[in-house]
Amino acid sequence: SVSEKLENTLELGFGLVRFGLAGEEFDPALHEALMDQTSAEVTVPTIAQVVQPGYRIGEKVLRPARVVVNSPA
Fold this sequence. Notes:
By secondary structure, the protein is α+β, with helices and mostly antiparallel strands. It has one helix and six strands; from the N terminus they run H-E-E-E-E-E-E. 18% of the residues lie in helices and 49% in strands. The chain has a three-stranded antiparallel beta sheet with strand order 1-4-5. A three-stranded mixed beta sheet has the order 2-6-3, with no helix packed on it. The mean pLDDT is 95.
């Protein structure tokens, strides 16, 4: 709850945005792939699991999201 309050305060005061959700297309400019696995269910590299969310202010990435990626087979 303390971290949620801090995130809310930083979002309202400074425009901090949390990003990185399972199912999104993988973008190496925004995401850091910790593991890559093949899947017949995807046609483009897709985030399978978010290990650590990313944060940005405007267009500036403060920390990339650390993710597990499903790549097309």
